[in-house]
Amino acid sequence: MPDTRELLGMLTPHGIRMDGAHGGIPRLTPQDVAAAMGMGEIPEEQGHLLLVKYCGDNTPIHKLWASWFMRVMEKKQFEGWKSDKPGRFEAMSRFTLNETLSDNLCPVCCGRATVWAGNLEQSCKRCEGSGKSHQTPRMAAVALGVALSAFQKTWVPRFAWCRSELMIWEANAIAGVSRALK
């Protein structure tokens, strides 16, 4: 069975194949995948994450944003996180959600992980052969409007929690859809 993320991609619009490859009857149709999302017993916000990230459906983006921001504010209250300026937790929420939803492809190799130097193909130095661009602490500090030193002292653990929590949301949702497809 294909990867669940690829199956979710079946819900996106497709054009005709121009590469001359032969088609065929898919074993799973987009309707099967959509039904699995409904039967996967996944929380609504996690389903929204999958729809936005893998299916190209931006209709639930506002609900996803609201759910994510509420989750960050719950964590803030539980942990007693403080901020010297209003809006910093909103900026952190926006930054981490955008980071999760974007492809983060390396601008040098366009996600291929390798570049050509003359006739020689070599690993991309910018992304260290991963194909992904990395959001740097400096980028996050700028998004929050804090100095890099203040970001590293106070905000790095908070960003780490946000990234980890979003990864958990995504993994749980993918597992739910995968279980429903079996």
Provide structural commentary.
The protein is flat and about 50 Å long. The mean pLDDT is 82. Helix content is 55%, strand content 4%. The protein has 7 helices and 2 strands, in the order H-H-H-H-H-E-E-H-H. The protein has helices spanning 4-8, 30-39, 44-54, 61-79, 88-101, 137-144, 148-181, and strands at 114-117, 120-123. It has a two-stranded antiparallel sheet. The longest helix has 34 residues, at 148-181. By secondary structure, the chain is mostly helical.
Brief summary of the model shown:
The protein is mainly alpha-helical. 55% of the residues lie in helices and 4% in strands.
Q: Give me the side-by-side strand order of the main sheet.
A: 1-2
Question: How many DSSP-defined strands?
Answer: 2
Mean pLDDT: 82
Give the strand content.
under 5%
Query: Strand-and-helix sequence, N→C?
Result: HHHHHEEHH
Structural class: mainly alpha
Largest sheet: 2 strands, antiparallel
Query: What would you report as the Rg, rounded to the nearest angstrom?
Result: 19 Å
The proportion of residues forming helix, as a percent range, comes to: 55-70%
Low-confidence parts, pLDDT < 50 over ≥5 residues? none
| Apparent shape | flat
- Report how far the terminal alpha carbons are from each other: 9 Å
| Total of helices | 7
